[in-house]
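step: validate -> pass
step: tokenize input -> pass
step: predict -> running
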Amino acid sequence: MPVATEFSFSVDTQHLLMEGLRILDEWSVIKGKLTLDTVFKQTMTEEVHLSAEEEEILRYVDGENDVSTIIDLTSKDSFDVSRTLMVLAEKGIVAAVEALPVAGVETEEKGKALSLLNYLVPAAITLSLVLAFSVLLINRGDYFRRVRAAGEVSELRSRIDTYRVAHGEYPASLEDIKHTFDPWGRDFIYQASGNSYILRSAGADGAEGTPDDIY
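step: predict -> pass
step: emit ->
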């Protein structure tokens, strides 16, 4: 008797896309207000409530550390550090000051690093979206193969039963009725014994007797 098979896979692609667009929008605002050379100083005059992340980053704001140094000290993502510094600035807790003059080579290197970050962040977001959609498509493809396999098993059962009516016994092999492969390019598993038979596909893993077998 055929056994119904179900397979489900879901990815909240809408949420993923909206989150990616949100980060891109925030990054475009951030990079217009600070660079890796920007130095912040604390301007907080009274105690205010801060999140754990804000408190951690604020510890390194001393009027000398620039953004790149704070990123190194906290070992956090450049986007998260930059965004938190902008939030602290909007709250009036920190303010940007003019960075001290540095060697021309170092300034040029930091400029190149910032330019690279401007490309890396959108590229990383785009890559994550592509990978998410790829996983979705791959799993949907496997789902459709399972559906097709179930349909082919059902068709073969009809042919086997018709053969028995015509010949008084089940076919010795599927070669007697129709030589076909399952959607994964493998032979269907068929065993006839007296008044019964077994017919199934081994499924995606190709291993007989595992949960993804299709009867």
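step: describe -> Residues 1-11 have pLDDT under 50 and may be disordered.
step: cleanup -> pass
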